[in-house]
Request: fold
Amino acid sequence: MRLTWVQPEDLLPHELVQSEVEGKPVSSARERWIEAGGDPTPAVGGASANPADGGLRKLASRLLDELDNEAAASHPDEPEMWDDIADVIEPIGACCPGTDYPARVVGAWTGRAAGCLLGKPVEKIPRQGIEEILRCTGQWPLAGYFTAVGLSQEVAARWPWNKRSAPTSLAENIVGMPEDDDLNYTMLALELLEHHGFNFTADDVAQLWLDDLPAGRVFTAERAVYRNLLEGISPDKCAVIRNPFREWIGAVIRADMFGWTQPGNPALAAQLAWSDARLSHIRNGVYGAMWAASLASWAMVAEDVHEVLDVAARCVPPRSRLAEAIAFGRSAAQFGLVEGIDRLHDRYGSLHWVHVLNNAATIAFAIELGDGDFGASVCAAVTAGWDTDSAGATVGAVVGALAGIHGIGAAWTEPLDGRIATSLPGGAQLIEDLAARTVAVALRDGARL
Reply:
């Protein structure tokens, strides 16, 4: 059994990359690892092909601890604590939502599910493979859920579907929205706010994970933190201990609920996302969550997607790498789908497919390019590759909120059957019930309705 995202020999190559980004000295650790026979190249998936022997694994553990104990270089443009972040982001006045707020929440939940579902079967497949699959099945450019009908054995062997998702997320197999961590976390955030309100702490988030999240359904940074919590490490330390994924996309996929329940108040939505994200992420990983929550908040009141992008961009530190990625993604949209994606990959192609920067650039690109068209937006997000289901979910939620159920379109909504499966306690949930609970939290805790 090769457990993903936790084996020391698999974590170390990723840590070498992340530590170098943070300005930590890594040359000695890398040389010792290579001299001992370790591979310094990070695995694309969560585990390398072969387990390390006992000696090599022990060395990986020691090197991880040494790198954790090294101080990161100062990054004045990328502050960590909320007060410091608040000092550098632009103040934004709140805007009261209209009477269509409940309908926008339904659209956001539905759009998030549909966008996620679109990306599920091709998660981990690079953009070249996605395009080859689509051309082989007569679906290029992408305009609907993927299908295996017409796919040649040669292409299928070269680019295998995500083995967990294909049985439930290809067009011919969809019966409601299948379980996915991108929706599990949205439901979990709703439960968090129902139980603790808007004054929740990282401890509250940690306890809820341990109570309700199956360990096998958390990945990357969240799995590292889950392990840390079980080892008795304080929640305020979990993000920086044996967690090389601390600037990846995990916190982004947890953030929408904080915006949906703070309609028209993106600054507070960003602060709530910060409170959640800091359990598992630092710097740009946290800013990504703040940005996603701000997108979700302004999508509850905006007239168009460009306005949403404009406002949300003001809720992240302006000279951070995350802000740069957002701006680059938006600018790439002017070149159209194919050339725009080429530019994204030229700029961010060296990053892991679950990193926050490439995926944030993709989300911004897809929303800008789609110009409010739901199908065009989620298809652009997925066609770009990288974390296809997560990017599709975030884009789908933003555009779905503005478009509403009818604007999303029956081709996208009918296969969902109005329900979302989950591995959380309680089983499958109706979208209309989840939306009603979301609105109830906003009403109970004082959103300006």
The mean pLDDT is 96. The first strand starts at residue 419 and ends at 420. The domain at 82-119+177-199+247-444 is CATH 1.10.4080.10 (ADP-ribosylglycohydrolase fold). Strands lie at 419-420, 429-430.
